[in-house]
Design brief:
The protein has 164 residues and is an alpha+beta fold. It has two helices and ten strands; from the N terminus they run αββββαββββββ. The protein has a six-stranded mixed sheet with strand order 4-3-8-2-5-6, with helices on one face. It is elongated and about 90 Å long.
Amino acid sequence: MKRGQILGVPLVLLFALIVGALILAYGAKVAIDLVGQADYIDFLDSMKDLENNIATFSHYDEGSAKVYEINLPNDVEAVCFYNDGKDFDCSLDGEICDEVLEGTLDLLVESNFNVYVYPNNAFDQTRLKIEDFETEAGNPECISNGRSLIITAYEDFVGLTYYE
């Protein structure tokens, strides 16, 4: 090998090392994004399951009830159910909401949506519309992730309330 070729070898190795590091960084970013998308899909599946349970209970006899556990990804702290026709009286797990949650929900509430996820930046879509339910205790009725609610069939609607 000529002297110029020998001096160029470290530069080639350095360039290869930089390219390898960039490939690893890109791979790590893709893997992290994939985990985030998996959590989002898990969240949407859980919400669809809840919507299906509510729709099913709308056809059951009055007084039928079921305990439903809210199991969502770790990014979600609470799910809040809102009834547009009632006064604003926030409750979290059967108790009065703290000022931060109540203030956040007061800003987020719109007539187009009746299910809200807290924190509101957990996913791209954190406001949903589910038909034919009403909150029984608070409005909004918030349930912490990992806790349960009772789905109860009434004559004209399905009621949701916190279950200990």
